[in-house]
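Student: Hello, beginner here. Can you help me understand the protein record under this note? Any guidance would be welcome.
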Amino acid sequence: MKQLALLTACISALALAPLASAQTAEKAPAKPTAQKAAPKKPAARKTTRAKAAAGGAAAAAVVPQGVKWDCELGNHLYIDGDMPRAEVITLNWKGANHKLPRQTTVTGADRYYDPQSGLDLVVIPSKAMLFDKRAGQRLTDECQTEAMRAGEAAPTQAGALRAPVVAPLLVPQKN
């Protein structure tokens, strides 16, 4: 019963609303009304992927830390962290920092992969390569440090585990 009374009150209020507005329109003096500007919509928040794709001023604000690796086609990447021992390194690529955790491999190469960004860094003794697993492409290749260009091997975990060479294995015996 109460619902029926409430429904009747709502219907009558809606029916009388146009009459009330018509009466107030007749009483109000005719003034030119200024058009109000449409309210501004709040700017949409950019996702991390959109920020990385934009690569604009936000990416330029990140100062690269770590060792600079020069790559083919004028690309550069910076690696911060102790590569032979650290479980997570920081990779600065195209002005953005990415945390890459170490992955186990059976080949002896060092691999750092972050599933969130899709970046996959593979380091072998002669060079490093950076892949984008999401796009399925190699981003850069032939990455080397100054020391590597001078003839040293890359700072890999497999290299750090090897015993330092103090004497060759096959030394002629003096008799």
